[in-house]
Design a protein that fits this description.
Length: 71
């Protein structure tokens, strides 16, 4: 394992953790805090964009590399 490969792997995990934290914070805010209508659209846009990204992260880390997924 080279230096660059190790750093790329650490960066992938770091980005995945950042996305998970952002999604969790956004959902916690939606549940616990009353949000003005003008700001609610921005938060829903954030959640709408982070949802598929969470799916990609899950498929990257939990899919078997030997399994081929057909569309």
């Amino acid at each position: 394992m080279t230096f660059a490969t190790r750093n790329i792997g650490a960066a992938r995990i770091g980005i995945a953790l950042i996305v998970l934290v952002l999604y969790g914070v956004a959902v916690a805010i939606m549940v616990n805090i009353e949000i003005p209508q003008a700001n609610k659209d921005v938060l829903m846009l954030l959640l709408g964009n982070l949802g598929p990204l969470l799916g990609n992260i899950g498929s990257h880390y939990f899919n078997s590399p030997n399994k081929r997924v057909t569309p």
